[in-house]
Amino acid sequence: MHLDWTALGRVAAVSVGGTVTVVVVFALGVLGLARPEGMREQRGGACALGLTRATLCFLACTAVVAYGIHLIVPQ
After folding, report:
1. Residue 50's Cα: distance from chain center in Å?
2. What proportion of the chain, given as a percentage, has pLDDT over 70?
3. Shortest CA distance to 14 belongs to which of 71, 57, 75?
């Protein structure tokens, strides 16, 4: 039995990189939702910007998860 260690290393690196990226983007989305709570009294524009950033981050996470499910489920 022969194992292609290079291919296994690539798969592991892409998996770890993708996971870290999705977690960071999700955390930025949560930060976008949390930060406007304290800024509502100060500025109205910052609230809209935070909600927009959070929405885009959550949509990006949803797209990555949907693409992963698309790859796993047989056609």
Report:
1. 16
2. 84
3. 71
- C-alpha to C-alpha distance for 36 and 26, rounded to whole angstroms: 16
- Could you tell me the pTM of the whole model? 0.77
> Which residue type sits at 12?
A
Kindly give, in sequence order, each residue whose CB lies less than 8 Å from that of residue 26, ignoring residues fewer than 6 positions away.
57, 58, 61
Query: Which two structure tokens, joined as six digits, stand for 3?
Result: 């194992």
Name the H helices within the chain. 5-39, 44-72
Condensed to tens digits (0 to 9), the pLDDT of residues 33-48 reads 886 555 655 655 667 7
pLDDT, residue 41, reads 58
> CA 52 to CA 33: how far, in whole Å?
9
Taking the CA of residue 51 as centre, how many other CA atoms within 13 Å lie in the half-sphere pointing to its CB? 9
Six token digits for residue 43: 């500025």
